[in-house]
Amino acid sequence: MRLSRPILTIACALLGSAAAVADDTKEIRIGQTLPYSGPASGFGIIGRAQEAYFEKINTEGGINGRKIKFISLDDAYSPPKTVEQTRKLVEQDEVLLTFNSLGTATNNAVHRYLNSKKVPQLFVLSGATKWADPKNAPWTMPGMATYQSEGVIYAKHILQTKPDAKIAILAQNDDFGRDYVAGFKRGLGDKAASMIVSEASYETSAPTISSQLATLKASGANVMFGVVLGKFTSQMIKGVAEINWKPDMLFVPTSASSISFLEPAGLDNAVGLISSSNQKDTLDAQWANDEGVKEYFAFMKQHMPNADLSNSNYAAGFQYATLMVKVLKACNGDFSRANIMKQAASLKEVPLPLLLPGITVSTDSEDYLPFQQLRLRRFDGKSWVAFGEILDDR
After folding, report:
1. pTM
2. What DSSP string describes 71-98?
3. Domain 8-145+290-363 fold
């Protein structure tokens, strides 16, 4: 029996569709939203480094014979745009998971959607405490120490070194800012009310924060805690210098510590700035012969030879990409969403090339926090210099 031409055409189309589906099974599709434009566009470098790392893995044969298809889209650090791009990743690009998307408000806009679809939302680049909630959001896993824990650590340092401090706080008016401030006040304990002499906030849509800085200076504070991100990091550091305010200690979150955010303010103005990290500073001479740092530089030289190595966002992208690959390898060929989530929640003291000595990654089904330790560091005009012991929120 001969098939008519229309039926033959339909049959070929169906066979072609089946082949396309079969080809798709050879890919591990990973989605991401990052701000490649907008006020936090400096973080876009993270995705570029990860794209290069996944390509490196692909050229080495992929994972269990499958290549990684990494689709990183611009959300401009805007929650409505994050929703639009995430739906595209899930419903059109058919990604297995989302990975390392940045921002508290942006991830908040899609985390219920991703959980309802049972799509792993892995290693969220936000330290909001809500991401570590396996009971209510089992498909979402944080990728940072919580903002509250970091706030506690800064408060502990102030209590130990300047117990009579008069503290001013500038915070972004969203969950990101509120979490840091809540942890900071918890760390100060019953001394918070007397030590904090002034608080101000800003909206991410604000053009400047100059009026807030003037108000904070007028309070007589000698310690400043700035819960800022992106361009507001530069504005705060430069603004404090311009009004000739010289607080004894000036803090910024880990997420604001990239030199790319310090440079527009003038690196001289950032000298003495305090932040924290669980990661080696790749430019610090003490790590010159460290195997993990050498691995990072070898990767950058081969795959991103024109990159500015003073920008720590490249190192952050590399670090998280190595973690994602470890999870995928642990899947042992079973790349179902359920197994990907199971392996991400079964990490046992996993080392990463750029983690500080003594710090590893551990998770389990009841504790999704992969990072719970940090070390303070101070900017010396060229790089961040670690000091003190490894601290945690206890």
Report:
1. 0.77
2. EEEE-TT-HHHHHHHHHIIIIIS--SEE
3. Rossmann fold (3.40.50)
